[in-house]
Specification:
Elements lengths: L6 E12 L12 E3 L2 E12 L6 E3 L9 E7 L2 E3 L6 E3 L4 E6 L2 E3 L11 E4 L7 E7 L2 E3 L6 E4 L1 E7 L2 E3 L6 E4 L6 E7 L2 E2 L13 E3 L7 E7 L2 E4 L6 E5 L7 E3 L2 E4 L3 E4 L5
Parallel strand pairs: 1-3, 2-4, 3-5, 3-6, 4-7, 5-8, 6-9, 7-10, 8-11, 9-12, 10-13, 11-14, 12-15, 13-16, 14-17, 15-18, 16-19, 17-20, 18-21, 19-22, 20-23, 21-24, 22-25
Length: about 260
């Protein structure tokens, strides 16, 4: 494969990318980052791509540093796959002060923000989501799958058909060392007759999450059908759920894991 040099000390600002998805024949992403360190992107607007709005990963072949990536004061919306996709090779991405909304396709597993570990490829770690407005995904707003060292703080997250935050793993990699604090978590489970939790920690079998802290958040549930604020699956353990505030209907916290 051709060698691609690492982009160092890059800066992108005041840029609008409009994919005009109706005229795209393939699922192209708006902005693709495959090898970079110390890249700053601010005041960018990425919308209406048939693929992901922003995709950051190692391209399956090129193993190199994807670190110290900062995205701030930006708007990522109406893309038909993920709003922001963080894949193998990511080791240091910060997303702050941005509006990430209305991404995905109804009925398909796409999210506003998706961090995904893929077996046999480089792990993903050190992700920060702070002070963002993340809302109205077509599935869950945020999904972490096999992610490590993730901090989610001070965000307003809501209006999700399913979960606001879904944390999963697989047989080879748990999600762990996840901190969720100081967020306002609004409506979840807006699909008709659905019963998804606002924050789901692990799902059945090997899909688990450990060392997750859900502390000091505000859950707002103004009459939507969500039955649970936090649901910890029995596959997960060593998690902390404490000091949260519930405004609205007194929905429950379900703790099933060991040592939680």
């Amino acid at each position: 494969a051709a060698k691609i040099p690492t982009l160092t000390l890059g800066y992108i600002a005041h840029l609008t990318l409009d994919g005009n998805s109706a005229n795209q024949t393939v699922a192209t992403s708006g902005l693709r980052i495959i090898k970079a360190t110390s890249l700053y992107a601010e005041n960018i607007h990425v919308k209406d791509f048939k693929g992901n709005g922003i995709q950051i990963d190692d391209n399956a072949v090129i193993l190199g540093s994807i670190s110290t990536i900062h995205i701030r004061n930006s708007r990522i919306e109406y893309n038909l796959q993920h709003g922001i996709y963080l894949g193998p090779g990511v080791d240091g991405v910060t997303i702050v002060g941005s509006d990430i909304n209305d991404n995905g396709t109804t009925g398909q597993d796409f999210y506003n923000v998706f961090a995904e570990f893929i077996a046999g490829r480089t792990a993903i770690s050190d992700i920060v989501l702070g002070g963002n407005l993340i809302w109205q995904a077509k599935r869950a707003n945020i999904r972490l799958h096999g992610a490590v060292q993730v901090r989610i703080f001070g965000n307003l997250v809501g209006s999700a058909p399913r979960q606001n935050i879904l944390i999963t793993g697989d047989a080879t990699k748990d999600s762990h060392l996840i901190t969720i604090t100081g967020n306002t978590l609004g409506n979840a489970s807006e699909e008709a007759a659905s019963t998804y939790a606002s924050v789901q920690i692990g799902t059945s079998g090997t899909s688990k999450a450990t060392n997750v802290s859900v502390v000091g958040n505000t859950f707002v549930n103004p009459g939507v059908p969500a039955l649970t604020n936090v649901d910890e699956d029995a596959s997960s353990n060593d998690n902390t759920i404490a000091g949260n505030v519930v405004n609205g209907a007194p929905y429950t916290f379900i703790i099933r894991g060991a040592n939680s």
